[in-house]
Amino acid sequence: MTTFDDRERAFEAKFARDEDMAFRVTARRNKLVGQWAAAQMKLTPEETDAYAKAVVQADFEEAGDEDVIRKLLGDLLAAGVETDDATVRRALEEQSVEARRQLMGEA
């Protein structure tokens, strides 16, 4: 029975590590895409930091990425930046790749 118990503990530990990494990648991605959007809106460095944090917080409103996309698209349009849903989604994908690259470099 110990072999099965050991295997179960190993699977549980791997699952926990994978979930932690997925959370960290999403949070980093949201920060990066917030910085991208802030640059589009020509915010100051202080405003950029605050905005990136607000984008990270927006992700906790509902499951999935729609809450973040809604915030980014709404804020960009309100600031007079010509953009659309596809552009925001593309930026989200690009920043996801960058976030994963950055976090893998830290590991």
UniProtKB/TrEMBL annotation:
InterPro entries: ATPase_inh_sub_z, ATPase_inh_sub_z_sf. It comes from the Bacteria. It holds the Pfam family ATPaseInh_sub_z. This is DUF1476 domain-containing protein. It comes from Sphingomonas kyeonggiensis.
